[in-house]
Amino acid sequence: MDLSKFISITGMSGLYKVIAQSKIGFIAESLADKKRIPVHSNAKVSVLDNISVFVKDGETIPLSDLLKKIYEKETGKPALDSKSSDEELKKYFESVLPEYDKEKVHSSDMRKAIMWYNLLQTTDV
Predict the structure, then answer these.
(1) Helices and strands in the chain: count of H runs, count of E runs
(2) Residue 24: its pLDDT value, please?
(3) Which residues of the chain have pLDDT under 50?
(4) pLDDT tens, position by position, 3-35
(5) Under a CB-based contact definition with an 8 Å cutoff, are residues 54 and 100 in contact?
(6) Which candidate, 14, 63, 99, 103, has a CA 20 to 30 Å from the CA of 35?
(7) How far out from the chain centre does Cα 8 lie?
(8) 88 phi and psi angles, rounded to 5 deg
(9) DSSP assignment, residue 58?
(10) pTM score, two decimals?
(11) Crossing angle between the packed helical segments 107-122 and 63-74, to the nearest 10 degrees
(12) What is the structure's pLDDT at 1?
């Protein structure tokens, strides 16, 4: 799965796909509602391809590997609701990635990863 075109923008919910370059930054399209917005060069942007998850022994795995594990567990269907309780999220995350670092991976990280998976899954990415 190539996540290099998908971004998360600090302060804005959801995921965006990079569409084109502009003089002041680039144009991004929301995966949820397909609206296009200008993203200025001073915006804090995270490319999904650069995000990784801490596992035991200080190692990390790419987000794409985690999303593949969720996809395999759910056989292509949506995952747990990202608004579930922290305990449900931890239990689900442990069933998908038992070796995740329980000290460094917080509930908010799990919630975000599951929300991103569900968004990518519903938009057939």
Answers:
(1) 3, 7
(2) 87
(3) none
(4) 889 999 998 888 999 999 888 899 999 998 999
(5) yes
(6) 63
(7) 8
(8) -65, -40
(9) G
(10) 0.88
(11) 70
(12) 65
